[in-house]
C-alpha cells in the first residue's frame, strides 16, 4: 500500500457499469380486492416510478385527493387490495457478463417476475434488492411485473404468525417492515399504500463492480484519518485494484483472485474540521474510489466526507447522568426538532423540498434534526444537504411505539436493513447519533407491555445486541443509544434507572400535553429532552384549502378527520382555558390555538435553555408534517410556517434572555450560545402596561462563549403591585425578554391600538406597525391574504410608542388595509378582549 499516485502504463479505459433507469412505460392495475370500485377494477392505469398506487390513481382521476376533507376514509380499500405494476423494455445482449435488476425501494410486500418467470419476493420497504436476471432476459421486448400484496392483510397475517405484541394505533405495523406511519399516526393519514417508492434500474457489468464504499473519517490530533472499506461484487476471479484519492493523496490495494473486501487508509495533515452550524465551518473533502482491472477502470464512486469526532457524554455526576453530544471536544447544546417523513408519499419529496425544509429549520435556529423511528432512513439528498449546512442529524432505527418479535423472519430483515442503511449513512459527518428505537424500552417498562407480552420477545435483542454491534462494526465514529428515551446503564446494568427518568439521560415529556397545562414544563429539571410538544392547527390557508366544511368549525366533519390525536380537540381546549377564553368563531379559534401552541413551546424551550449545562438538549416535537393536519408541527403539511416556527426562532436564538423563577422569585437568565463573549448591562424593569417604569435593576454581566448567567432580582422588581397591569422586561445589548405576572385572560390588555404604514419594496412589501398601547404577541398572518407569502417575524411584544417592521415576500397586489385587517394583523390582545 502507498500514498503516492499509482503509475498506469497508458491512459486508462473506462468500462463502467451500464445503468439504465426503468422509470417509463409502467402501468398499474388492481388484481385482487373485494372493495375495489368497478371503475378501478377494470382499469389499467398509467403509473409513475418512483411512485405509489395512491398517486397513480390520483393522477388518473380515479380517486379524489386523499389529503382533502374526509377522502382518507373513502380510500381505505386501496390498502386492502393487491396491485400489479407492469412495464416492457427493449434489451439486447452486450459484452457484459452480468445484468442485474436493482430495486432501491419497494413498498412493501412484492413478487417480482420477468417474462413470466419468478425473480424474487420482497418483504421490506427499508432495504434495496438486487437480482441477477441475465438468464431471464431475451432479445427484444421484455416484460417486468411487480405485484404488491395488500400491506394490511399481510400485516394482520404476520401478527398472527409472530404472535400478538403491543403497539399503538389500529394496525399491527410492528409485524411488517413498512414505514409505521403508513398505517396512520396521531398526526398522520392512513394510506397503507404500495408502490416502487425509489428508483428501479437495470445494471450491466463485467469482471467486477463496487458493491459498497464505506469511508470512516476520524481525527487524530491535527490529522484526519480515513479508512475506506470497499466491498466488491465479482463476475470473475480476476485480480482487481481498488484505489482511493482524497486531498491530493492516493493509495491503492490489489485484491487477489476471488477476494471481495479491501481497506484503504490515508492520513491528511492539518485537516480542516467539520463543525455543526453555529460552531464553525463545514469543510468537505472529495473522496474518489476507483476499481480497476489492469489499466481498465471498471467502476468508480465519489463521496464528500467531513472530519469530526463525536462523543456522547454520559459520565455520572452529582445530579445524575448527563446526556451531552460532544463534537470535536466541544459540548453542544442541542437546539433540535424531530423530523417525520415530509409527505405521506415519500417519493414526492425531492431535493428542492428537503432544501426548503432545512432552510426553515435554519430560520428557527435549529442545529439538530432527529429522524423519528416510525418513518424512513432518510435519503442521500437529505443527508448531503445536512452535511453542507452543518445540520446535525440523529437517525432512529425504524422501530417505534411497539414491541417487536425477535424471531425469524423479522430478525434477519432487521439485520439486513440495519447493515445496509448504516453502511449507506456512515460517511455523513452530520450523522452523530444512531438510536435503537422510539419509546419501546419506555413502553416495555411503563405501559403494561410485560403483562400483555406474557414472556414473548419484545425487541431488547435489537437494542442491546444487534444494533450496537452493527454500529460498532460499520460506523464506530457515530454515537449509539439503545432508545429514546434512554437512561444509561450503570456497570452494565441496563435496568439501573427507569426509562424516562429526568435525572438520567434523555427523556420525553408528554404528560404536559396529555394531562397538564404547559406552565408545568417548569417543574422539570431534565438532563436532555428528546421529545415534547403542543398541538396547533395548520396555517389558515392550508386548513381552508384542505377542508371545505360549511360551516367550518373545530368539530365539523373534515376538521375531525384532520385531527388524529386521541381527544385532541378536548386537549386543545383544556390547554387554552387557563390562558384565554374559548373563542366562538373559527377564525379566532384558529388564532388562539396557534398562539397557545407557540407560547407553550416557548415556555418549555426558554426554561430548558436556562438550565444549561445541567440540561444539554431540547428536541421539539416536531418540525414538519406529512399532510394538512392539526398537529405538533412548526411547519404545516403544505410547507407553510406556523407561528410556532417564529417562536422557535426567538427561543433558539444564539443569545437569549429569559425571566425564570429561582428559589420562588424571578431571576433574569442570559444564555450565550455564540462563540463570542457577551458583555453588557443587563437591565430588568417592572413596567406598567402604559410603559411607566415602576422599579428597575441593572447589573453588569460577562458571559463566556457557550455559557449562562443568572441574575437574581430584588423583590421591588420581581414582585408586582398590580399583577393584571404590570410586566417585567429584561434587556441585554438589545436582546429582550418579557414576563407577565398574570395569564393573558386575567390581565388588562385591550383591543390593540396600532398604526400601520406600507411600503412596496423589491420582492414584496415592508409593513411598519406602531403600538399606541401595549400589544402582546403581535403577528402578521400573511397567508390569509396571499397563501404564497412569507414574513420575516412574528410574535413581537411592543410597549407604547414602539414599532416593528415586517418584511413580506409576495407577488400579490396587497394594500395596507389588507395587511392591517384584524384577521391578518393578530395579537394576544384580541383574544383577551373576546373574554
UniProtKB/TrEMBL annotation:
Residues 39-198 form the Beta-mannosidase-like galactose-binding domain. GO terms for molecular function: beta-mannosidase activity. It is an enzyme of class 3 (hydrolase). GO terms for biological process: carbohydrate metabolic process; glycoprotein catabolic process. The keyword Hydrolase applies. InterPro entries: Beta-gal/glucu_dom_sf (IPR036156), Beta-mannosidase-like_N2 (IPR054593), Beta-mannosidase_GH2 (IPR050887), Galactose-bd-like_sf (IPR008979), GH (IPR017853), Ig-like_fold (IPR013783), Ig-like_GH2 (IPR006102). Keywords: Glycosidase, Hydrolase. Its EC number is 3.2.1.25. It catalyses: Hydrolysis of terminal, non-reducing beta-D-mannose residues in beta-D-mannosides. Residues 212-308 form the Glycoside hydrolase family 2 immunoglobulin-like beta-sandwich domain. Signal peptide: none annotated. Belongs to the glycosyl hydrolase 2 family. This is beta-mannosidase.
Amino acid at each position: 500500500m502507498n500514498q503516492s499516485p499509482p503509475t498506469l502504463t497508458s491512459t486508462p479505459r473506462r468500462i463502467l457499469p451500464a445503468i439504465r433507469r426503468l422509470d417509463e412505460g409502467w402501468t398499474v392495475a388492481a388484481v385482487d380486492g373485494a372493495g375495489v370500485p368497478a371503475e378501478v377494477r377494470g382499469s389499467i392505469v398509467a403509473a409513475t416510478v418512483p411512485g405509489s398506487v395512491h398517486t397513480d390513481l390520483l393522477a388518473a382521476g380515479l380517486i379524489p385527493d386523499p389529503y382533502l376533507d374526509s377522502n382518507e376514509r373513502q380510500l381505505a380499500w386501496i390498502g386492502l387490495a393487491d396491485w400489479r405494476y407492469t412495464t416492457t423494455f427493449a434489451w439486447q445482449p452486450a459484452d457484459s457478463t452480468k445484468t442485474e435488476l436493482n430495486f432501491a425501494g419497494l413498498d412493501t410486500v412484492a413478487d417480482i417476475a420477468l417474462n413470466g418467470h419468478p425473480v424474487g419476493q420482497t418483504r421490506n420497504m427499508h432495504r434495496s434488492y438486487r437480482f441477477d436476471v441475465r438468464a431471464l432476459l431475451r432479445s427484444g421486448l421484455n416484460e417486468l411485473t411487480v405485484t404488491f400484496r395488500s400491506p394490511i392483510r399481510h400485516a394482520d397475517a404476520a401478527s398472527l404468525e409472530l404472535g400478538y405484541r403491543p403497539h399503538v394505533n389500529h394496525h399491527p405495523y410492528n409485524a411488517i417492515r413498512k414505514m409505521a406511519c403508513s398505517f396512520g399516526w396521531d398526526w398522520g393519514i392512513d394510506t397503507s399504500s404500495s408502490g416502487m417508492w425509489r428508483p428501479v434500474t437495470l445494471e450491466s457489468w463485467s469482471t467486477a463492480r463496487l458493491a459498497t464504499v464505506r469511508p470512516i473519517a476520524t481525527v487524530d490530533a491535527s490529522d484526519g484519518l480515513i479508512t475506506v472499506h470497499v466491498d466488491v461484487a465479482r463476475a470473475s476471479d480476476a485480480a482487481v485494484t481498488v484505489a482511493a484519492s482524497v486531498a491530493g493523496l492516493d493509495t491503492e490495494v490489489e485484491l487477489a483472485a476471488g477476494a471481495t473486501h479491501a481497506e484503504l487508509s490515508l492520513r491528511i495533515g492539518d485537516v480542516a474540521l467539520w463543525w455543526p452550524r453555529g460552531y464553525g465551518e463545514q469543510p468537505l473533502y472529495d473522496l474518489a474510489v476507483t476499481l480497476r482491472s489492469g489499466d481498465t477502470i471498471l467502476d468508480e464512486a465519489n463521496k464528500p466526507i467531513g472530519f469530526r469526532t463525536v462523543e456522547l457524554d454520559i459520565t455520572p455526576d452529582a445530579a445524575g447522568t448527563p446526556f451531552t453530544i460532544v463534537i470535536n471536544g466541544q459540548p453542544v447544546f442541542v437546539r433540535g426538532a424531530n423530523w417525520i417523513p415530509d409527505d405521506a408519499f415519500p417519493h414526492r419529496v425531492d431535493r428542492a423540498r428537503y432544501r426548503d425544509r432545512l432552510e426553515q429549520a435554519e430560520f428557527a435556529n435549529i442545529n439538530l434534526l432527529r429522524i423519528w423511528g416510525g418513518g424512513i432512513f432518510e435519503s442521500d439528498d437529505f443527508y448531503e444537504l445536512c452535511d453542507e449546512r452543518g445540520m446535525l442529524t440523529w437517525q432512529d432505527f425504524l422501530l417505534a411505539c411497539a414491541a417487536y418479535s425477535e424471531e425469524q423472519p423479522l430478525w434477519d430483515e432487521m439485520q439486513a436493513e440495519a447493515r445496509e442503511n448504516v453502511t449507506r449513512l456512515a460517511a455523513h459527518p452530520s450523522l452523530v447519533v444512531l438510536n435503537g428505537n422510539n419509546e419501546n424500552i419506555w413502553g416495555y417498562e411503563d405501559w403494561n407491555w410485560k403483562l400483555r407480552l406474557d414472556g414473548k420477545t419484545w425487541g431488547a435483542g435489537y437494542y442491546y445486541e444487534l444494533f450496537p454491534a452493527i454500529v460498532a462494526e460499520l460506523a464506530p465514529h457515530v454515537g449509539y443509544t439503545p432508545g429514546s428515551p434512554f437512561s444509561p446503564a450503570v456497570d452494565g446494568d441496563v435496568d439501573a434507572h427507569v426509562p424516562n427518568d429526568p435525572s438520567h439521560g434523555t427523556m420525553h415529556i408528554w404528560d404536559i400535553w396529555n394531562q397538564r397545562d404547559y406552565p408545568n414544563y417548569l417543574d422539570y429539571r431534565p438532563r436532555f429532552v428528546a421529545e415534547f410538544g403542543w398541538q396547533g392547527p395548520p396555517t389558515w390557508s392550508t386548513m381552508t384549502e384542505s377542508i371545505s366544511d360549511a360551516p367550518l368549525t373545530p368539530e365539523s366533519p373534515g376538521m375531525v378527520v384532520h385531527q388524529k390525536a386521541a381527544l385532541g380537540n378536548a386537549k386543545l381546549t383544556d390547554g387554552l382555558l387557563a390562558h384565554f377564553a374559548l373563542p366562538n368563531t373559527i377564525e379566532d379559534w384558529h388564532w388562539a390555538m396557534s398562539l397557545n401552541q407557540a407560547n407553550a413551546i416557548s415556555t418549555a424551550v426558554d426554561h430548558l435553555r436556562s438550565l444549561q449545562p445541567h440540561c444539554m438538549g431540547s428536541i421539539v416535537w416536531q418540525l414538519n408534517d406529512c399532510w394538512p393536519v392539526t398537529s405538533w408541527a412548526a411547519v404545516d403539511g403544505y410547507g407553510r410556517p406556523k407561528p410556532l416556527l417564529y417562536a422557535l426562532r426567538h427561543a433558539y436564538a444564539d443569545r437569549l434572555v429569559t425571566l425564570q423563577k429561582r428559589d420562588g422569585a424571578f431571576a433574569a437568565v442570559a444564555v450565550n450560545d455564540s462563540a463570542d463573549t457577551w458583555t453588557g448591562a443587563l437591565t430588568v424593569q417592572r413596567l406598567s402596561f402604559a410603559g411607566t417604569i415602576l422599579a428597575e435593576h441593572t447589573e453588569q454581566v460577562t458571559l463566556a462563549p457557550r455559557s449562562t448567567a443568572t441574575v437574581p432580582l430584588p423583590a421591588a422588581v420581581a414582585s408586582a403591585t398590580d399583577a393584571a397591569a404590570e410586566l417585567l422586561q429584561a434587556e441585554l445589548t438589545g436582546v429582550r425578554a418579557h414576563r407577565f405576572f398574570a395569564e393573558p385572560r386575567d390581565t388588562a390588555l385591550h383591543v390593540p391600538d396600532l398604526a400601520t404604514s406600507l411600503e412596496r419594496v423589491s420582492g414584496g412589501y415592508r409593513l411598519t406597525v406602531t403600538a399606541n398601547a401595549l400589544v402582546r404577541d403581535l403577528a402578521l398572518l400573511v397567508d390569509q391574504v396571499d397563501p404564497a407569502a412569507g414574513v420575516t417575524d412574528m410574535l413581537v411584544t411592543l410597549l407604547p410608542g414602539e414599532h416593528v417592521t415586517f418584511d413580506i415576500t409576495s407577488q400579490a397586489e396587497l394594500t395596507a388595509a389588507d395587511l392591517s385587517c384584524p384577521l391578518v394583523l393578530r395579537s394576544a390582545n384580541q383574544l383577551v378582549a373576546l373574554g
